[in-house]
């Protein structure tokens, strides 16, 4: 359990998420993330030089990402500070935030910035020499499609892991459709009153469309209107499967940032010093081969145990749910109402840019708990390789 690591209230932002091949499709995500963070810091009148370390969370290679963390720090105005690049697929944000918290706890850092950014669009196509191959032909990989469709350890596509869990847990197509519709309705809550909830944390991305023209991406792109009838009319992705393209997430682009600092500094930076946000605990796990969605449950249990609380003591729950079965399995195993968490949004609906996905959900969870008067936030999610992670924050 951590006792000294804090997040300033409103010391975070997330851009909208842009659907695959949308408005952010040609931006280098490191440059876009750093430039967005720089604009956000300027709006808050915060000097980027206040940070002593940067955690860059990114999972999809971009030109010059070898220099990722230090380059991003310089671009955002924190010239001269070191950093580290963390890549842990879908749980990248949670791990960045917790590792920053560990550094604050031990006194290694005083004020850390976690910047998470990714671009699924136009992913890299990697080529390796293969001089011993027939005719010296190269080996190649389409970063996104090849990895989404083939786990080199478990074999098979990611959706197959969700179907494995659905089959073993007795999760049906009808349940997946019902949860998806509920998640869409919850997302719509964030759009009420002219997007009042999203405006609590969302910051626009500035995207260059030509040498002389830039645009602001101010709202999510690519969220499909969802109805029970529409979901029922879709075919399963895999034969006799529980999931359709409606009940799984879609690749996206975006970035987010979270400041992790000491209690004293958090009070100075917070828009409301009376609201304290403490990084409490972390959990991790690996499920059996080919059952990725199962890994969330032991990770959540570890985080709750490390925090010294039970699931009943949690005020709000947010998850990374690339497939509807993820939430159904978590609810089944933890004895909670599957329809009662992920208020205001989740990756199943607003998309999945990998690195920043968990960060946006955690930020949304903070705002929800503040609105409810304080308490514990639990975030949990799966990641490639049948792994899972969880994070507990205390707010109030």
Name some characteristics of this structure:
single chain; alpha+beta; Peroxisomal Thiolase, Chain A, domain 1; 2 domains; 6-stranded mixed beta sheet; 33% helix
Question: Could you explain how this protein is built, in words?
Answer:
The protein is of the alpha+beta class and 396 residues long. It folds into 2 domains: 6-122 and 198-222 and 249-269, Peroxisomal Thiolase, Chain A, domain 1, CATH 3.40.47.10; 158-195 and 276-395, Thiolase/Chalcone synthase (Peroxisomal Thiolase, Chain A, domain 1), CATH 3.40.47. Helix content is 33%, strand content 21%. It starts with 5 loop residues before the first strand and ends with a strand.
CATH class of the largest domain: Alpha Beta
The CATH superfamily title of the largest domain: Thiolase/Chalcone synthase
Summarize the amount of helix as a percent range.
25-40%
Beta strand count: 15
Q: Might you state the CATH topology name of the largest domain?
A: Peroxisomal Thiolase, Chain A, domain 1
How much beta, percentage-wise? 15-25%
Distance between the first and last residues' Cα:
17 Å
Low-confidence stretches: none
**Major sheet characteristics:** 6 strands, mixed
Tell the overall outline: globular
Compute the number of structural domains.
Answer: 2
Count every helix, treating DSSP H or I runs of 4 or more residues as helices: 13
What CATH architecture of the largest domain do you see?
Answer: 3-Layer(aba) Sandwich
Mean pLDDT, to the nearest integer, reads: 97
| Secondary-structure element string | EEEHEHEHEEEHHHHEEHEHEHEHHHEE
Radius of gyration: 20 Å
Structural class: alpha+beta
